[in-house]
Amino acid sequence: MGGGGPGGIRTHALRVKCPYCGSEDVEVVKTWGMRSYSVTHYRCRACGGAFNRYRDQGTGREFMLRSGKRSSH
Ligand SMILES: [Zn+2]
To answer: Which residues hold their Cβ within 5 A of ligand 1, which is an ion?
Structure first.
């Protein structure tokens, strides 16, 4: 496959922020692959919110989607 993406970014730890409260104190719950995406499921330690980060391994683009509810009280 062709290049053209950002070179050599492999083992960089990306800084992930909670989309609910903006905290960086998040933990990885699990990761899996979906088609060309690698998906990481996070949970925020600060507010308990859960979200997924999708990363397209072809283009390197990524985005986050909220999942679950932050406080189910
Ligand atoms: Zn949070």
So the answer is: 18, 20-21, 23, 44, 46-47, 49
Question: Which residue ranges make up each domain of the chain?
Answer: 26-67
Q: Cα torsion for 22, 45, 15, 61, to the nearest 10°?
A: -80
CA of 57 to the centre of ligand 1 (A): 26
Pair of tokens at residue 22? 């903006």
* pLDDT tens per residue across span 8-67: 444 445 689 999 999 999 999 999 999 999 999 999 999 999 999 999 999 999 999 999
> In the chain, what's the furthest Cα-to-Cα distance?
49
